[in-house]
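Colleagues,

Please find the record for the two-part complex below.
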Amino acid sequence: MNALLSKLGWFAFAVTGAFALAVVALNRGESIGAIWIVIATICTFTIGYRFYSRFIASQILRLDPTRMTPAYKHNDGLDYVPTNKYVLFGHHFAAIAGAGPLVGPILAAQMGYMPSMLWLLAGVVLAGAVQDFIVLFISTRRDGRSLGDLIKSEMGQLPGMIALFGTFFIMLVLLAVLALIVVKALAESPWGTFTVAATIPIALFMGVYARYIRPGSIGEVSLIGFVLLILSIVGGQYVQEIPSLAALFMLTGEQLTWLLIGYGFIASVMPVWLLLAPRDYLSTFLKIGTVVSLAIGVLIISPELKMPALTQFVDGSGPVWSGSLFPFLFITVACGAISGFHSLISSGTTPKMIRNERDARFIGYGAMLMESFVAIMALVAASTIEPGVYFAMNSPAAIIGTTAESATQVISQWGFYVTPEMITQTARDVGEHTVISRTGGAPTLAVGMAQILSEVLGGQAMMAFWYHFAILFEALFILTAVDAGTRAGRFMLQDLLGSFIPFMKRTDSIIANLIATSVCVAGWGYFLYQGVVDPLGGINTLWPLFGISNQMLAGIALVLCSCVLFKMKQDRFAWVTILPAIWVFVCTLTAAWQKIFDANPRIGFLAHANKYKEAVTEGTVLAPAKSIGQMQQVIFNDYINASLAALFMLVLISMLAFGIRTALRARALGTPTAREAPFELLPVEIVSRT
Amino acid sequence: MIEREGDFGKIIEEERTMLTRIVSGLRYLGQGMRLMVGMPEYSTYVAHMHHAHPDRPVMSYEEFFRERQEARYGGNGKVTRCC
């Protein structure tokens, strides 16, 4: 009877989800409430979690609640600590949630909300969450070792090195694109620049406070910091209104770029307690708080989606980024559906704290569903903006010009209703001089959030506050990522170079440190600068490169997962990771190929380079270049970008080859060959407690 | 009368379990928030040291705080956050 009831319940649930999806999918011509998307999402995720992740856990991985976990085996009260599964879920989610899932869907909204929504729902249930879960499982069964180590031990030394090498380049592109988002959000905005600049002295004060005045008082110091942050947002408005102060914080993109590069260098060689740690407290808590309040806001007011379900830009002619739906939508959405970066987190601190193997399902699969939910919220926020205003904010100045009139003219031709007053009114509402060509996703999200949150709290008068709050929240965690990422990149580089030049491996040597840090900063700084001066906005070039690199890492992780399944003698279930792997490979390789070789200069790097070369031979100068020398620079940048895309393809293809070799070898043997830590029983009193 | 007292006792008992639930929920919330920034529970560490290594010195909270901060941010190439 109970079983029947439960089945009926799940059936009703599935019907509700299908109905909500149908409402979203079949409703054409009139706008729908965001609540339908939320219902469809919740139903899809719950069913995916209940059935698919359970199938993976019990049939394929055979999670064993009596098996020893690294947290008990190596318990030291520090890195290895058996941790409550809800507490650990929070830790894991805070580590995987970043700017990616917020920005990706916003940029992808140029094709309408439907394609991104479908990919987010399907991708996370069948690919992204599966990857996170299985990597977490693999690492937990191997003493919590890192992705590079896991690949080395399961697939061989060389593939391990290749994966690490690829990861380093992902890091560079990631930091560049994140920094670019900040530059785009803060350029020519004294209010935003002031508040973000104010976070530096605030963090320094917090650092000193938590180390000397009240050692270790994280909660207290974070509260103080939060109050100061709010004051800095309020203060920013006054700064904007006083011309002499406003001039001081009115910076161009190029000025901000140099400041960021300088900041990145200095911040990553400073003691961690002084700037990085307190900044991390603020950004982590603010991130969680903002995501939760956005979700509550969407639930309460269920805003109307103004963006059409599909726009004409599915053909690849869109102004925000170029390239057709396949493969570029999947590259652009990236993080919220499947993110390769998560495989580093799932094989990082989390597996060292899992109390019981069984928890891996809730933490690995569950946290990724949550991340995808955040991406859906971002998509909703972007879709509640008037499409005309959305395109005014996200199209590069080279296409729509720099005035409200020129933007209106171009965007009206695309068939979206917009007037110059709508654009200027939006700018006035959020307290900015202009919103035209505010590319990069962050300002769009901020406008969407400001509309939603001001409706919940504060009304029209608070919109400017909420806008700058959202900008601050994004800039804050991006700057934390720049700082922490530069440090991580430096160590990766020292590790890699150390194999050839032993001196570089010495992490205690200040000279080796400074060299590696400089190389890292120069690396991402180069891509950042190139993006900032690009008339098409830089996001056009850098976001696809970032997406490709991120999906490449996902491909690597899925290959590892498949190899491990073969080595566990679970061949008949290996499709669970092989199918998503094939999809990721096809999308990523096609996208990289098109980025290099496509004949359209807006897509292909080589075609773009040729266009400039021809102009050089004719002696004409094309924007953004102002001289033949700068033309040469543009051509050089194109070649660098093309090489990088080629490098990602090479890494991916070689990993595929190594993966196939490993799988074939495992199949040839009759016994399981997975290199798990030897089986030990969890002490009985622990099993009964958990 | 006796029955009523029994009811009363039950109510107090229920309230008490409710209260302990709230308290432990809040404790987990605090624990969770601290762990989000890489700070595990100090009392767990102390208990572990007393239980497993009674011979070894135990770090003070301040030392523990600094050690964990250095471990989270000090490098060794660990990636502690995502894009």
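Chain A has one domain: 2-188+251-489+528-668.

Comments are welcome before we finalize the supplementary table.
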